[in-house]
Amino acid sequence: MTNIVKFPSHEPDFVDPKVVLDAAKERVSECVVIGWTEDGTMYVSGSHADHMETIALLEVAKAAFIKECLS
């Protein structure tokens, strides 16, 4: 059995979604927005009309996150 020690991070645990979205406006050429509404409903929207393109973008992002977490 191993003991897992969580080291303090300099990054906050939560950033206001408005700040994240405002920062992305000038930087991204295509996007997927995923989040929870105030009433607890999942919200998903993307810049592609083709849902398969949106799924592809999600999968590329997922792979990048996994790679970052494992490195």
Give a written overview of the molecule.
With 71 residues, the chain is α+β, with helices and mostly antiparallel strands. The protein has a domain at 30-70. 41% of the residues lie in helices and 14% in strands. It has a two-stranded antiparallel sheet with strand order 1-2.
Summarize this, please?
With 71 residues, the chain is α+β, with helices and mostly antiparallel strands. The chain has 2 helices and 2 strands.
Secondary structure layout plus pairing:
Layout (H helix, E strand, L loop, with lengths): L16 H9 L6 E5 L5 E5 L4 H20 L1
Antiparallel strand pairs: 1-2
The biggest beta sheet reads: 2 strands, antiparallel
Give the overall shape. globular
Our measurement of the CA-to-CA distance between the termini, rounded to an integer number of angstroms, reads 22 Å
Q: How many distinct beta strands?
A: 2
**Average pLDDT for all residues:** 87
Helix content: 40-55%
